[in-house]
Amino acid sequence: MDIKEIFNIVKTHMPITTDSRDCPEGSVFLALKGETFDGNKFAVSALQKGCAIAIVDNTDIIGTSGEKVVFSDNGTAEISLENGRQGMLILVDNTLQTYKDLAREHRRQFNIPVVGVTGTNGKTTTKELIAAVLGEKYNVHYTRGNFNNDVGVPKTLFQLSSEHEIAVIEMGASHPGDIKTLVETVEPTCGIITNVGRAHLQGFGSFEGVKRTKGELYDFLIDNGHLTIDSCASPSPIFINADNADLMEMAKERKAPKLIKYGKDTADEVTVRGKIIDCAPFLHFSWQADGGAEHEVKTHLIGAYNIDNMLAAATIGLHFGVSEEQVCHALENYTPTNNRSQLTVTAHNHLIVDAYNANPTSMKAAVDNLAAMNVPAKMAILGDMRELGEVSGEEHQRIVDLLKSKGLNDIWLVGEEFGKTDCAFRKFKDVEEVKSAIAECQPQGKYILIKGSNSMRLYTLPEVL
Question: pTM (2 decimals)?
């Protein structure tokens, strides 16, 4: 069967589950495979628990009586279950690809604007801000958490319903071609690349590889203007930070026909322009649209770099008819809860928690921001930046040199890569050693930046600080 035939069967049996422990009555089980598991082995069990259909990509399926299941020429098989029930198996070439293809078919049932969001840094915060701004006027469906990969994106799309008026879908990448695969699933009607930086270099091979992969969102929007709808008319809009030379070059190379620009310092004509007023410690900025009235916004986000994310959300909101007052209301009331640009106040310290991920670009921005913050007693606990490949040593040393140049002295470095750097800062093998040191010296009255790759587990530090 082709994907449309499969979709016509499964669409009356939603939801689709990929977890054999969660099998709603009459639902569809899709058997994904990973390095340490094979969902095909649990297909019959999922049917027994209540699923009506199981989609598999392995013919070696054993039925309830111990017999090997025989598939018909069209790739289906009916098997008898307990209590006289019948279950259907559907055989496909690749269940992950089928999952994405079915998600695309589901997405096509809804003729609504879909905003695609990707980038090296800031994409999750930007996605959250866009959703908050659009939520002032619309019923918005958007990516929850960081479900931005080839499993999380389909999961997000399947949650689209007739109640939703607009969608904001985040897409992540760590290898060449990742964004191409995801945009072909999402089919965004417009989109934004927040920035391009030196992250996942082990997977991308180089910074040029990062730009090519992130640029696949631009490629799709430029080549698929026919997919757009009335409220996002052809050609598909690309929202772009005019201050970012890399993004502007990428758009120019592709001869992107419709750029909607925002920025701070650019000489270009922009839809939204902003400037930083203060960071002590929260970002306080002003913005204006098309030379109109100036608005001041006091945010709940740490980091001067977040002004770009704020301006992006404002620009997209205005494009979809959100009023300037509504934009301000959304930006002022957004509070992060995802370990990104988040201030946590404990009984002893103020913690700038940005411990979900780290790469050279985001680490530099965080260090620059800490140095610029108008607060006393600054301290940083920084963990290794992972997946940098051959340039890892060089990139970690650059961060150390930056810390020295900024005059930041109370620095704790965590992990093997930072351990190899040339500096006099305190070094720790892992987060457990850091916790022991905290118990011994008990830092108090400090503003502490906590940042590192998620696997460094620095996100466990706030409870002891």
Answer: 0.88
